[in-house]
C-alpha cells in the first residue's frame, strides 16, 4: 500500500494544475469576496456574525472539497479504467481496491490542506474566527468529505471516459453549491429551497461547519444526513463502479 501511495503521489504531482486549482481557487475567492464591505459587517440573518467569520470560509471549504472530489478523483479513476490499469491490476496480487484507497486518501489530504489554508487565510486577512469546537469540526468535515468522495466515485462510475468525468463533476458541483448557500444564505432561502438544502448533504455540511465555528457541537440531524449520504453514495459507487 505504501508503494502504491508513493507512486500515486508522484503521478498526482505531475498533474499539478488540478491540485493547484483545488488549493488556490477557494483561497482566491475568499480573499476577493472578503473585500466586499457588506460582508465584513455584522449580519442579523447570521446571528450577528459577519459573513467572513464563518459562512464564507465554510463555503470555500466546501468548494475545495467538491473540486477535489468531483474533478480530480473521477478524472483519475476514469483514466485508469480507460487505459486498462485497473483490469491489469486485478490479475496481480495487488488488487485495484488498494489503488482506489490510495486515491481516496490522497484526495482527502488535498482537500484537508485546502481547508486549513482557507481557515488560516481568513483568520490572518479578515480576522475571521477559528473553529471553536475542533473535534466537532473534524468529525463533521470527515463525514462530509467521505460522502462527497463517495459521490465522486459515482461520477467516475457513470462517466463514459476520462475526458467527460471532470465535466460531469463540474456540472454537478454548481447546483450543490447553490443549495449549500453559496449565493443565497440559507437563512433567506424560500422554505422549499431550504428543505432541499437540509437533505442535500452539502447544506448540513456547511451548517455543521458554522456550528463548530461558534464553538458548538454539530447538530445530530446534520450529522445524520451526512451519514445517510455516505451510505447512499457508497452503495451506489459499489454497485455501479466497473474495474474495466
Offer a concise description of the structure.
Helix content is 73%, strand content 0%. The protein is an all-alpha fold and 244 residues long.
List the helices and strands and how they pair.
Blueprint: H1 2-14, H2 16-33, H3 55-82, H4 85-89, H5 96-126, H6 134-158, H7 164-179, H8 191-198, H9 202-213, H10 220-240
Polypeptide structure, described:
By secondary structure, the chain is an all-alpha fold. Helix 6 (134-158) packs antiparallel against helix 9 (202-213). The chain has helices at 2-14, 16-33, 55-82, 85-89, 96-126, 134-158, 164-179, 191-198, 202-213, 220-240. The chain is 73% helix and 0% strand.
Task: Estimate percent helicity.
Answer: over 70%
Number of helices: 10
Radius of gyration based on Cα positions: 18 Å
Number of strands: 0
Order of helices and strands: HHHHHHHHHH
Give start-end ranges of low-pLDDT stretches: none
Distance between the termini: 21 Å
Backbone structural class: mainly alpha
Number of domains: 1
Could you say which overall geometry the principal axes of the C-alpha atoms support?
globular
Strand-residue proportion: under 5%
Biggest β-sheet strands, sense, barrel: none
Average pLDDT level: 82
Structural key phrases:
mainly alpha; 73% helix; globular; cell membrane; 244 residues; antibiotic resistance
Amino acid at each position: 500500500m505504501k508503494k502504491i501511495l508513493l507512486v500515486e503521489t508522484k503521478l498526482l504531482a505531475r498533474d499539478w494544475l488540478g491540485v493547484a486549482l483545488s488549493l488556490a481557487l477557494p483561497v482566491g475567492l475568499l480573499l476577493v469576496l472578503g473585500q466586499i464591505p457588506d460582508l465584513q459587517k455584522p449580519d442579523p440573518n447570521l446571528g450577528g456574525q459577519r459573513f467572513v467569520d464563518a459562512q464564507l470560509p465554510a463555503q470555500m471549504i466546501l468548494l475545495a472539497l467538491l473540486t477535489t472530489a468531483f474533478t480530480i478523483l473521477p478524472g483519475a479513476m476514469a483514466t485508469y479504467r480507460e487505459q486498462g490499469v485497473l483490469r491489469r491490476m486485478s490479475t496481480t496480487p495487488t488488487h485495484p481496491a488498494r489503488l482506489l484507497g490510495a486515491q481516496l486518501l490522497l484526495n482527502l489530504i488535498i482537500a484537508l490542506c485546502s481547508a486549513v489554508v482557507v481557515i488560516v487565510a481568513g483568520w490572518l486577512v479578515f480576522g475571521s474566527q477559528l473553529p471553536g469546537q475542533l473535534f466537532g469540526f473534524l468529525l463533521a468535515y470527515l463525514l462530509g468529505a467521505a460522502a462527497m468522495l463517495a459521490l465522486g466515485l459515482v461520477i467516475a462510475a457513470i462517466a463514459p471516459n476520462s475526458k467527460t468525468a471532470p465535466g460531469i463533476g463540474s456540472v454537478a458541483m454548481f447546483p450543490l453549491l447553490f443549495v449549500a448557500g453559496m449565493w443565497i444564505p440559507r437563512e433567506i432561502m424560500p422554505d422549499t429551497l431550504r428543505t432541499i438544502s437540509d437533505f442535500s448533504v452539502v447544506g448540513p455540511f456547511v451548517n455543521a461547519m458554522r456550528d463548530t465555528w461558534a464553538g458548538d457541537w454539530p447538530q445530530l440531524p446534520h450529522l445524520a444526513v451526512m451519514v445517510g449520504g455516505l451510505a447512499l453514495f457508497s452503495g451506489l459507487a459499489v454497485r455501479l463502479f466497473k474495474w474495466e
